[in-house]
Amino acid sequence: MFFSPPVFLFISIHLSLRQCVGEEIWVDSRTVYIGHKEPPPGAEAYIPQRYPDNRIVSSKYTFWNFIPKNLFEQFRRIANFYFLVIFLVQLIIDTPTSPVTSGLPLFFVITVTAIKQGYEDWLRHKADCSINECPVDVVQRGKVVRTQSHKLRVGDIVVVREDETFPCDLILLSSSRHDGTCYVTTTSLDGESSHKVPGQEVDSLHATIECEQPQPDLYKFVGRINIYKDKEEPVARPLGAENLLLRGATLKNTHHIYGTVAVYTGMETKMALNYQSKSQKRSAVEKSMNAFLIVYLCILISKAVINTVLKYAWQWSPDRDEPWYNHRTENERQRHVVIRAFTDFLAFMVLFNYIIPVSMYVTVEMQKFLGSYFITWDEEMFDEELGEGAQVNTSDLNEELGQVEYVFTDKTGTLTENNMEFIECCVDGNVYIPHEHEDLFFRALCLCHTVQVKEEETVDGIKRGIHQGRPTSFYISSSPDEVALVEGMKRGLFLFARLELKPLKKINEHEKVSPSLCQDCLPFRFELLHVLNFDSVRRRMSVIVKSSSGEYLLFCKGADSSIFPRVVSGKVEQVKARVEQNAVEGLRTLCVAYKRLSHSEYEEACHHLTTAKLALQDREQRLAQAYDIIERDFVLLGATAVEDRLQEKAADTIESLHKAGMKVWVLTGDKMETAAATCYASKLFRRSTQILELTKKRTEEQSLHDVLFELNRTVLRQRSISGYEIMLSVDCLDFGLIIDGATLSAVLKPNQEGAGPGNYREIFLEICRNCSAVLCCRMAPLQKAQIVKLIKASKEHPITLAIGDGANDVSMILEAHVGIGIMGKEGRQAARNSDYAIPKFKHLKKMLLVHGHYYYIRIAELVQYFFYKNVCFIFPQFLYQFFCGFSQQPLYDTAYLTLYNISFTSLPILLYSLVEQHVTMETLKKDPSLYRDIAKNSLLRWPVFLYWTCLGVFDAVIFFFGAYFLFDNTTFTSNGQMFGNWTFGTLVFTVLVFTVTLKLALDTHHWTWINHFVIWGSLLFYVIFSLLWGGIIWPFLNYQRMYYVFMQMLSSGPAWLSIILLITVSLLPDVIKKVLCRTMCPTISSCCALSSPFSLLAAP
Amino acid sequence: MMASSYNAKEEDGHHSGASSHGGAGAVKSKKPDNTAFKQQRLPAWQPILTAGTVLPAFFVIGLIFIPIGIGLFVSSNNIKEFEIDYTGVGESSPCHSCAKNFSWNSTTPCLCSVDFTLEQPFESNVFMYYGLSNFYQNHRRYVKSRDDSQLNGDRSALTSPSKECEPYRTSEGLPIAPCGAIANSLFNDTLELYHIDANGTSNSIPLVKKGIAWWTDKHVKFRNPGGNGNLTVAFQGTNKPVNWRRPVYELDPSDSENNGFINEDFIVWMRTAALPTFRKLYRIIQKKPSSTPTLPSGKYVLNITYNYPVLSFDGRKRMILSTISWMGGKNPFLGIAYITVGSICFFLGVVLLIIHHKYDTRNNSADIPN
């Protein structure tokens, strides 16, 4: 094109780059030619890479591959595959039931799922289409050309206007704003908004961008831009996440940005990469369900084996095998006996396969999906302030909410408001409360430091404030602490701050970033040179500024633990004392220090920073090293204290969780004293709680070993003393443990001595088990996840719940069985990665105690009932084999076999599992201890399962032998006519449908009109269907065995009497069991149900 | 970069919207509806099964079931039933020779007669059944071996019967009508009943064969091909089942309305029994207009045309005479079951009452200190 530098120049650049980044592998990065301007020719080293176009494909299927691919996906599920096998067996061999009986339900399930998935995919296609075809302005040969989004290529220069969404991942080159920055909201990505820094000017730019290959981390981007100018050494500049505009984000408050260049397109954008689903969590209920399924599979196989063996034993005499009235066909006779036996085995499998019902999976899935709407619909979990209610990200874990034993909660933003208020500051040991106008000098120092940082990040907020013609300003920052500090300063220096806002802004227009401070309308101006960003490992941040007098100053602000070791002078003792006192009061403290830099020092620091920032790989590490070198030898200035108020009803919630038998752990990065104060305030620790400390301070005095053993002894002694009076007073048994991050990592470290007496881990767990509350302070984000993992893996395998609001909680949210995100002020990351998101901590109470409890009892009943009703269904068929020569003759008609699970008995249990409330919501909320009733998966344990199965077998025996003895060799009608085998089956089936439905009716504690409608409706439907099914000669059927069978049965008095009798007998044991259990060993919930204002006679 | 949006508290509490929450309208639409269903607050009836509520139910069930049971038991006992086994297993039994010398090819029917005595007179209509034992009419291979379309008079099914009928589908190259194992094994003993009066003369007892099959079977489910015209023509091109002596259109020589597929004996047989021991209605002895009992007590002779072999599979044949009440034939089980269940409920009621009383007082006393 217009620019063609000499060949050698380019090569030299390349070499210098190589030297600069060391032994990096170049395949890991990509090179983008801005505006597709070719780099100097002859550069073989740049292998042109093929990039995808900017087409977003979020859809899974295309029109052509939908059917095969979807079927493949569906049959990968083990249950569907099982039914497919059964269906195929029915097609291939001669089986007792027609393939329709299993084919129809399977077809139904597959079709419904396929339609649902197809619809979702169609929506995705539509969305993709609209995204891919939306217009985009591209700069081509100096002109702005409008094109379609999917035609974008890597390297295109794109123009984006205000309120437009970025069509792909872009690097900001220039902006219409004077300071060259732009402001974006990434709500559709993570609900955050941020402010982006430009890379370069666009005009006649010839440059390449080197950056890493696409990776999903939204907050990480490492790249470098090389700008070629005529005959000059190319200039390399670092590019970081702050230069990257992510696809899906929206441009705000900036008229337009020019010359953004596409770096990642299409499916390689970070948004697309982030679509990958998280690992699947499975609930305890699902695990028990699978265990039950295996038991039933064994029952099924053993039934088939028993019957096959008996069949051949019984058929030993040829008179039985082939009596003269019932010959085999020639074909069958010639078949080998082994093949015949195997076919018989398969036929029995098919006959009994309904014991594992295809509909259970559908019903469970529907229950979970529909049931989760009750969470989103819940008005009490709606937060007016946020304008949002609870959010369900996965419905697979609804019932797990009722099983939680350990709650791990973050402190800041979760227990507390994360709404900071500046309380005081302390300079050189003197304490100042705002509103006092003295010692302005020190405050100014303090202010200077924070506001600089603030100013840099709050440009947009200030602008807005002015636009709306209001004198107040908004401060937007990544840390609420900083906002609180600035707010506090503003309060203290009310006049100056307000007056100075506008001029301040104007001044800024000229220099890039140079916030200034004023005192009595005299602006102090500083030029901001470097920002050493905050990170959770360093726990501090710094700025380097140049004052108007030309001095270089470095201000640092951070957690006391990270500042004090680096301080060389200043009134350390006084400040330390004050900081600790503040921490005890539950205030968040920050220390402020500074250091003066000489010019040479400054240059050196600059060098460190720029080399680190230019690195393509290990940039973070290099930066950390550079920061470490620079942030040294501080002079302590003072400390600030910020209050973070407890969230509304946080204490009440924690108390309820305690009463519900849950152990609450607070995991925080805060200081121990601050965190402990919050814990007391939130009633996690009570006055009576005996606090056990496992902190660095203690382990420095004694060895970790001794401390652990001593604590363990204390706990055990206490328990053995009061073991017998546990119930009398809970308070005296209360232990609270405080552990800090350093000690924790020591505990978790594998024992190096090897010979040590037992693992520390075990002892630690033993102590924890006996503590009702544990506070872990000074925790790194990863340690939070470690703790959760540790508890998860302990020998009781408790169900854990993690709740948090910030990015640092994501790891533990993902690790815990149930992860709950608070839609907090620190962004949406936690809510996005969680299974459930709630607006406030207090909503956890209703979530667990009410919704969790309901979901658990609902799904438990659903699972047990499904197995029960299918035992009732299939066991009579098994018994019938003993009376029909093991010939696999089905007892019921095909239609009954098919529809039993699909329509006769499906809706009542589905509705039950959606609306059942064994006790009222108010009772559950009032009495959290009810939660203990269902702890440890109590409704799905083996004894309960055995009870249900036995009940099913008992009922089945009653159905079959009841009918058997009634039918035995006698007439049922008053006209002497006889009934056949289909009437026998229909009688059993009628009793079966009624018993099974009425059993559910007995279990229903909450009869809404829907329950009435569905239960009585199902029974009515069964009767009407049977009348219809038997009332017509169905032309499409090749058999008419059911013709008038049902009506003939109803016309006989004894049939009615026996149906009533058999239903009564079948239900009797369950009623007796219920009454006895309620009277002899009542659970707490049953007592509550009794004392509830409703009585048996209360009308709806 | 962990950027986020945070708005410092504003004095007037107005939301800045900087983090794009949308206006008030958006907030409203997001708020869940306050409907009873969505809030899970539908009005509901909440019954609880406790001793107190179940007790009366138990007593009521007991009080209802016991009288019903007694009623059933009494009416079952009032039913007179007489059963005689004429298989001819024993050496001394009259049909022994017929049973022993049975051959499918014999052209002359084997006749035998069994004497029996009714101790009590049979009043009202008397139903005559034949019973078979150890005969698996409910065997799967047997049950499905029929073609309902053929039996419904479908012409195409008549000439090409369903495959289910194998190996009783065709014989000598012609389709069998009616095809299948069930039809092939039609019960073909002929039973005749004679009353020996005091003088020693035997009077034939009229046996009615109308009304032994379900009305719907006779009139809807079973149809002759081509209506009830000339059956010989209608069944042309088909063969009789292998074991039959006569073709289907000559089943009842005495009544032309009772031939073909709508022959009632045939229809009764085609309704397969549920259990290997079963009985099927054979004839009805209608009550006499006079007040004399239908079957007075005394000596009777049962004349049997012995065509049906059962000894090969160790089966038994019986003839049963039974009267019938509103609740069907003799079946003491239902009555006994009702009485038992009623008594159990009553007994449980008493036990629960005791338990309830005991635990109630204990609970109450435990409640007081709290």
From TrEMBL, chain A:
It catalyses: ATP + H2O + phospholipidSide 1 = ADP + phosphate + phospholipidSide 2; a 1,2-diacyl-sn-glycero-3-phosphoethanolamine(out) + ATP + H2O = a 1,2-diacyl-sn-glycero-3-phosphoethanolamine(in) + ADP + phosphate + H(+); a 1,2-diacyl-sn-glycero-3-phospho-L-serine(out) + ATP + H2O = a 1,2-diacyl-sn-glycero-3-phospho-L-serine(in) + ADP + phosphate + H(+). Residues 1-22 form the signal peptide. Mg(2+) binds at D410, T412, D805, D809. GO terms for molecular function: ATP binding; ATP hydrolysis activity; ATPase-coupled intramembrane lipid transporter activity; magnesium ion binding. Residues 135-194 form the P-type ATPase A domain. It is an enzyme of class 7 (translocase). CDD domains: P-type_ATPase_APLT_Dnf-like (cd02073). Gene3D superfamilies: Calcium-transporting ATPase, cytoplasmic domain N (3.40.1110.10), Calcium-transporting ATPase, cytoplasmic transduction domain A (2.70.150.10), HAD superfamily/HAD-like (3.40.50.1000). The chain crosses the membrane at residues 291-314, 345-364, 895-915, 945-967, 979-1001, 1013-1037, 1043-1068. It is a multi-pass membrane protein. Its EC number is 7.6.2.1. ATP binds at D410, K411, T412, E482, F534, K557, R588, T668, G669, D670, R778, K784, N808, D809. Belongs to the cation transport ATPase (P-type) (TC 3.A.3) family. Type IV subfamily. This is Phospholipid-transporting ATPase. It comes from Sparus aurata (Gilthead sea bream).
From TrEMBL, chain B:
It is a multi-pass membrane protein. It is found in: Apical cell membrane; Cytoplasmic vesicle, Secretory vesicle membrane; Golgi apparatus; Membrane. Residues 1-31, 146-166 are annotated as: Disordered. Keywords: Cell membrane, Cytoplasmic vesicle, Disulfide bond, Glycoprotein, Golgi apparatus, Lipid transport, Membrane, Transmembrane, Transmembrane helix, Transport. GO terms for biological process: phospholipid translocation. Coiled coil: none annotated. GO terms for cellular component: apical plasma membrane; endoplasmic reticulum; Golgi apparatus; transport vesicle membrane. Residues 150-162 have a biased composition (Polar residues). The chain crosses the membrane at residues 48-74, 333-355. Belongs to the CDC50/LEM3 family. This is Cell cycle control protein. It comes from Sparus aurata.
